[in-house]
Design goal:
By secondary structure, the chain is of the alpha+beta class. The chain is built from eleven helices and five strands, in the order H-H-H-H-H-H-H-H-H-H-H-E-E-E-E-E. It has a five-stranded antiparallel beta sheet.
């Protein structure tokens, strides 16, 4: 339950929030962002389901063009960590192999004597192995080796060689771009995470919606009578400052790097889950405003309000980034 009695203190609390928001701009100008350079990449805590974390960390270091965060982003893009996923094109499993490709490139990752496309212990190692084979196939193509490898996974190595890099297919270009952008969400940061310069504007938008009734699936449109659910509010707040977020909360988790609890800044998205070991179980999101509180759209029958973030369901935070 998202409970906080603000009562007559709402005005003072809002003033306190405004003070924190101004500070966000100051901090943004003074902190360095991004992960430290180098090929050594560790997965950020809570970004990969515990059952798969060791596999991704191990096999993500198979070749120079790959790293664990990139492999995690690729698997998330392929299946959303769903081992039983199947596409309309008959792509199967957590890594979305089509049967012909699996027959040629699937490996027995867990050493049990079988190659099972539905078993992540085989499919995740196979995805990494196939990535690295593709990287070798397209190593002479112009452009970035990692981007060419990803493009080959999506469109085939021949297309990358034919077009001298990422081919001009909208699906493939979006595939490469999305995975490269999500990569930073899965990588543990070795330095402080840069605050978003748009965060103050997102908070300002959310503040104006305080008191608005909750609506399941609400995006704040005229058809919704200006009402929101939790992720509809956060999406609209960041859209107001030019940052597009995915629609649902557990996808918004992958929209940027993950500051620790003691690194939270106003404007960070804060997430709550039913299983603190599995990001797929995230079921709520709010916008952090400082002082241990967020603005959120809690549940049917409630209104957009201030709530505390320190509950047993607190999962972590994301700092949305441009793009």
């Amino acid at each position: 339950m998202w409970l906080l009695g603000v009562g007559g203190g709402l005005g003072l609390f809002a003033a306190f929030v405004a003070f924190l928001v101004v500070g966000t701009y100051i901090v943004s100008a003074n902190l360095l962002g991004g992960a430290a350079g180098g090929r050594s990449v560790t997965l950020a805590k809570g970004t990969v389901p515990t059952a798969y974390q060791g596999l991704v960390q191990k096999w993500g270091n198979l070749c120079e063009e790959l790293n664990p965060a990139l492999l995690a982003a690729q698997l998330y893009q392929e299946s959303g960590w769903r081992p039983q996923a199947q596409s309309h094109a008959a792509a199967q499993g957590i890594a979305q192999f089509i049967p012909e490709t699996w027959a040629a490139h699937g490996i027995d990752g867990d050493g049990d004597g079988s190659r099972d496309v539905w078993n992540p212990k085989d499919a995740i190692p196979s995805a990494a192995s196939y990535d690295c084979k593709l990287a070798k196939y397209v190593k002479d193509a112009p452009g970035d080796g990692t981007e060419n490898m990803l493009a080959a996974y999506n469109a085939g190595a021949y297309a990358v060689i034919q077009y001298g890099g990422v081919p001009p297919y909208e699906e493939t270009q979006n595939y490469v771009s999305t995975i490269k952008k999500m990569e930073q969400s899965f990588a543990a940061k070795k330095s402080r995470v840069e605050p978003s310069k748009q965060s103050a504007g997102a908070i300002y938008y959310a503040q104006k919606k305080l008191g608005t009734p909750y609506l399941w699936g609400g995006d704040g449109t005229p058809e919704d009578n200006g009402r929101f659910d939790c992720s509809g509010l956060t999406k609209a707040a960041y859209a107001s400052v030019g940052i597009e977020l995915p629609r649902v909360a557990n996808d918004q988790w992958n929209s940027g790097p993950h500051p620790k609890r003691d690194e939270l800044r106003p404007g960070d998205l804060v997430f709550f889950a039913t299983d603190l070991e599995d990001p797929r179980s995230i079921d709520h999101v709010g916008i952090y405003v400082g002082g241990g509180h967020m603005i959120d759209a809690p549940y049917t029958g409630a209104e957009i309000r201030f709530d505390p973030i320190d509950t047993p369901k607190y999962f972590g935070a994301t700092r949305p980034t441009d793009g």
